Amino acid sequence: MKLGRPEYWDQACLELAAADPVMDKLIAMYPSVSLSGRGDAFHTLARSIVGQQISVKAADSVWARLIAALGDVTSDTVLVMSTDALRACGLSARKVEYLSDLARHHQSGRLEPSDWLDWDDEAIIRELITIRGIGRWTAEMFLLFYLLRPNVLPLDDIGLIKGIALHYHGGERLPRAELVALANCWQPWRSVATWYLWRSLDPVPVEY
């Protein structure tokens, strides 16, 4: 997989800035950083599972403890660690189950993103959510951070919802249908717009 800055980033920024004054301002505030791809499908999905339903700060803390305990978070290292050792890193019992199941899928060859390159986003989401512990949000993080898909709108993401409320609606959270309508002007670069809204809440880029 490609690593680093997506090839479409500069074009996306130009078009978003022209289409939306809020995006124009946010893009100007963070000129030297961008979404950055990772090269490991298991790592991206595991990091997303750790981040489910907790803050970025809490997820970073748990992930750091996992790295300290495992050396590297791979399917091999997850499977050799005991449930108690994984729980000691701050994972819930449910997330330990999810990580272990993901590791077994990875070991069996189930996670082969090279097979999905020609699939549309929804087809990949449908495939991923058949794996226990991977819901739509986790699959969308995979589309964003591993496949670097440009037009993902993770409507269940707390940061996206907060960012839209802060910058577009005086701090009031919008109903789902209104979020979709507001984001229409970001197409086909909704991933990029989402990323800049995350930056407005936390200047340090999150990575999955």
Automatic annotation (TrEMBL):
It holds the Pfam family HhH-GPD. Keywords: DNA damage, DNA repair. The keyword DNA repair applies. It catalyses: Hydrolysis of alkylated DNA, releasing 3-methyladenine, 3-methylguanine, 7-methylguanine and 7-methyladenine. Its EC number is 3.2.2.21. InterPro entries: Alkylbase_DNA_Glycosylase/TA (IPR051912), DNA_glycosylase (IPR011257), HhH-GPD_domain (IPR003265). The keyword DNA repair applies. Residues 50-202 form the HhH-GPD domain. It is an enzyme of class 3 (hydrolase). This is DNA-3-methyladenine glycosylase II. It comes from Deefgea chitinilytica.
